[in-house]
Amino acid sequence: MSKTKAFIGGVGVVGVLGIGFYFMTQGPQAQATVDQSDPVVIAEGQVVYQSYCASCHGKGLEGQPKWQEKKADGTLPAPPHNKDGHTWHHADNMLFNYVKSGAASLGIEGFKSGMPAFKPMLKDKQIWAALAYIKSTWPEKHRARQAMATQQAQSQSQN
């Protein structure tokens, strides 16, 4: 990998981390409206994911090729939602708000993303169900790490 590609990938990762920090510290705390461990919710989430997310993030949650490298338009390709991506690094609140409001609504200067806002298409329960499905595919250590990020974000918002 060239130094330029590595730098661009690093910038993309830093941008995503910045988004996570924004939602952990500034964004409204959204609470799951479904039992994310319920097999029925997970099955419903799989349907939502396949209908609304898979076209960009892959049927197997694999993301788009070169997802850490900016495209010509300055956006990053859709990342994987499996254990190989970074989704599990983020708190529930950040993930929910990102899906609901899209990246453009963040107001972070210079950050470009192709992620649309799904608020017009999906109800909150459907977004939570899709997240439950995604999380159900991760190994236990990834789910535990993501649960810790969620707890930390909730603690920070209460202070």
Structure description:
It is a single chain. The chain is an all-alpha fold and 159 residues long. It has a single domain, classed as Cytochrome c-like domain (Cytochrome Bc1 Complex, Chain D, domain 2, Orthogonal Bundle), CATH 1.10.760. It contains 5 helices and no strands. The chain is globular.
The secondary-structure class comes to: mainly alpha
Stated plainly, the CATH topology is called Cytochrome Bc1 Complex, Chain D, domain 2
Beta-strand percentage range: under 5%
Domain unit count: 1
Average of the residue pLDDT scores: 83
By CATH, the superfamily comes out as Cytochrome c-like domain
The oligomeric status of these chains comes to: single chain
State the distance separating the first and last CA atoms. Answer: 43 Å
Shape: globular
Helix content: 40-55%
Secondary-structure element pattern, one letter each: HHHHH
Radius of gyration: 15 Å
Query: What is the strand tally?
Result: 0
Q: What is the highest CATH level, the class? A: Mainly Alpha
Helical segment count: 5
Could you give a short account of the major beta sheet?
A: none
